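Notes from the 1:1 (GR / supervisor)

We went over the backlog. Supervisor wanted to see one worked example end to end before approving the batch request, so GR pasted a single chain during the call. The sequence is below; no edits were made to it. Supervisor asked that the structure be written out right there so they could see what the output format looks like.
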Amino acid sequence: MSVKVEGDFVEITGSSIAEGKSAVTRGVAAAGAGLQADWRAQIAAAGLGGKLARTIRREVYPQSGTSLRAAALVWSKASEIVDAFDRGALIRSADGFWLAIPLAAAGARGAGGKRITPGGWEQRTGRRLRFVYRRGRPSLLVADDARLNSRGLAASKSGRRRRDGTLTGAQTVPVFLLVPQVKLAKRLDLGKAATAWQNRLPGLILANWLEGTRR
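Structure output shown during the call:
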């Protein structure tokens, strides 16, 4: 049996390799874009906010040209936060004491617009918080001689004091809840999405190869 090649063998094989490089690169790029979109959609659907969803980034290698060994990298610029919700992480205080969870009365921001903390709240308001231990229940940091303003935030209460020193109409307002640890609910399944796009990759490469041969 003999085999005869019609045309220039070098040209034919060179064309096939070029088509393969293009198909692999396009297929990998499509899979990377799909995975990025799925991860962002998961984060948004979990109620974790558009800002965190936009931390999901994508890069395709090579960054220019084509290659049979093309690869896509999808990652988060806030990887620790995303990973915590993906695993359902157990979070403990770094110093081994308490985690301070802000209540509604604390507001969203501390001094300088930073994330609210007990120290930041005291700097923002000029008031001191008092520790209240509660056996068998989460302890509290509270603001004394306070009131809830129209926005539901703990604020100073002005007015006259009675003879016993009590400020008329004042309240003790809980501002932070203190717990030793917090178990985050697992709200993401990024691995499932990654596996799904990995399984789709051969079909994406084939589709781009067939499209390239029709051009």
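Supervisor's comment: The two ends are 33 Å apart (CA to CA).
Batch request approved.
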